[in-house]
């Protein structure tokens, strides 16, 4: 089987390849094609992958190209992890938003809208090319904002594009662990949008154990989300929110923390990864060792401003292992081998949440088999969650409309309608600021 990775020079590609190296089953991926616009980054990542495969018999062969059509032809799976504008663009997203006193995070609020506006046209072009050059391929989207981009691509690929995220997986794993259960045997009742969802139940042998967790302050305060949101707030919600909801529930504190930080997350990662690619490119460099060290630093500092605001301390060692690559592998195996499994994925609604239309992409448990991912029926969200989901989905639709029509006015509307942007005038200033620094937004007229 051939897997094409778009954004193949990206830092996290070795995670995906490492997962493939551990798969010895029939019908496994035997060929990996890396595509990226930056030949230097491709070369660096290829070196890391070569060291990963050095002691693995019959490892999937790896090739690299800057030609998108060449990369797509004949692909069975296409893994999309592109970053339009690079990390420098992410840093600009943060800077412009924070200057206006609003959040610039890459998937939430103003930063997420800016990132979406410049990513959607590129993602749509990729979807059209896949439909033409690899019509039988399944696209696994990890490009952020993942739900928005998956919905944009689904308009051209239907249900053959599936979005993945490691946040729900990590959340479910932490809850199961604190309850003393095997995460692989637990049913996680999770629903929402990407980076905007809630765990409302966790069933083990048919029994919902979440009430036991919510009733025990010591247990509830012992893991990441309990520390981040606080025991009282989780008990008030009666659910465990995705960590990204901290930006909504504690927005003022989060914005202040980001404004006071020495560097924004994007600026930190831009500097860190520039050092990584320089080090790996040096003669005699041990590429895999450099990557391992850089990754450990990256994971340890994840959402550090939010944890500092909440007094949550450092992340637990068990939470530093990522996880999206395992979701991607499980998804590919389920489809390619008809190994039926349940995964939390970003897929078209298809009536799962009555408050959203059929084509709205949501994040929900899915049964996966050779025919793709099928969302599982879930109970309605409580009113507070329904309001937030509907509000953010409306913003996503305005972003898609702005990208399709190239309308600056519609882009302003997208910013202004977001619950974390508190003024139409601020929305106008954001559009002015972003179009002045992002060449990828020059299409807005």
TrEMBL record:
Source taxonomy: Bacteria, Bacillati, Actinomycetota, Actinomycetes, Kitasatosporales
GO molecular function annotations of the record: hydrolase activity, hydrolyzing O-glycosyl compounds; metal ion binding; oxidoreductase activity, acting on the CH-OH group of donors, NAD or NADP as acceptor
Cofactor remark: Binds 1 NAD(+) per subunit.
Family, as annotated: Belongs to the glycosyl hydrolase 4 family.
Pfam name, any one: Glyco_hydro_4C
Domain Glycosyl hydrolase family 4 C-terminal: 190-421
Single GO BP term: carbohydrate metabolic process
Record protein name field: 6-phospho-beta-glucosidase
Active site, per annotation: 166 (proton donor), 244 (proton acceptor)
Keyword Iron: yes
Keyword Nucleus: no
Keywords: Cobalt, Glycosidase, Hydrolase, Iron, Manganese, Metal-binding, NAD, Nickel
Site description Increases basicity of active site Tyr, residues in chain: 106
The species this protein was found in: Streptomyces pseudovenezuelae
């Amino acid at each position: 089987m051939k897997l094409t990775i778009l954004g193949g020079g990206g830092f996290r590609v070795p995670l995906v390849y490492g997962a493939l190296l551990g798969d010895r089953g029939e019908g496994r991926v035997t060929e990996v094609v890396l595509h990226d616009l930056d030949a230097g980054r491709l070369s660096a990542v290829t070196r890391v992958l070569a060291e990963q495969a050095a002691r693995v018999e019959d490892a999937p062969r790896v090739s690299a190209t800057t030609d998108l059509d060449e990369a797509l032809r004949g692909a069975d799976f296409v893994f999309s992890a592109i970053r339009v504008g690079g990390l420098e663009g992410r840093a600009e997203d943060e800077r412009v938003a924070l200057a206006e006193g609003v959040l610039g995070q890459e998937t939430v609020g103003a930063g997420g809208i800016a990132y979406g506006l410049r990513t959607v046209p590129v993602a749509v072009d990729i979807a059209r090319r896949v439909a033409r050059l690899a019509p039988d391929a399944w696209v696994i989207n990890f490009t952020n904002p993942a739900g928005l981009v998956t919905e944009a691509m689904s308009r051209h690929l239907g249900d053959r594009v599936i979005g993945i995220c490691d946040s729900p997986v990590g959340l479910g794993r932490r809850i199961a662990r604190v309850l003393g259960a095997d995460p692989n045997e637990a049913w996680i009742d999770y629903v929402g949008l990407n980076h905007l969802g809630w765990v409302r139940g966790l069933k083990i042998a048919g029994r919902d154990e979440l009430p036991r967790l919510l009733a025990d302050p010591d247990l509830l305060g012992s893991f990441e989300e309990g520390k981040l949101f606080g025991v009282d707030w989780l008990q008030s919600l009666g659910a465990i929110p995705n960590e990204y909801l901290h930006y909504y529930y504690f927005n003022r504190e989060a914005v202040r923390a980001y404004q006071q930080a020495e560097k924004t997350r994007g600026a930190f990662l831009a500097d860190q990864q520039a050092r990584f690619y320089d080090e790996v490119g040096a003669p005699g460099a041990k590429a895999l060792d450099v990557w391992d060290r850089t990754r450990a630093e990256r994971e340890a500092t994840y959402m550090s401003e939010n944890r500092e605001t909440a007094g949550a301390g450092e992340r637990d060692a068990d939470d530093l292992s990522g996880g999206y690559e395992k979701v991607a592998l499980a998804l590919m195996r389920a489809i390619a081998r008809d190994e039926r499994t349940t995964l939390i994925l970003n897929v078209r609604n298809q009536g799962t949440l009555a408050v959203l239309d059929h084509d709205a992409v949501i994040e929900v448990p899915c049964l996966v088999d050779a025919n793709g991912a099928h969302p599982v029926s879930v109970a309605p969200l409580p009113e507070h969650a329904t309001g937030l989901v509907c509000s953010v989905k409306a913003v996503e639709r305005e972003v898609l409309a702005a990208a399709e029509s190239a309308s600056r006015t519609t882009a302003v509307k997208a910013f202004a309608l977001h619950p974390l942007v508190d003024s139409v005038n601020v929305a106008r200033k954001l559009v002015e600021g972003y179009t002045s620094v992002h060449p990828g937004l020059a299409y807005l007229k």
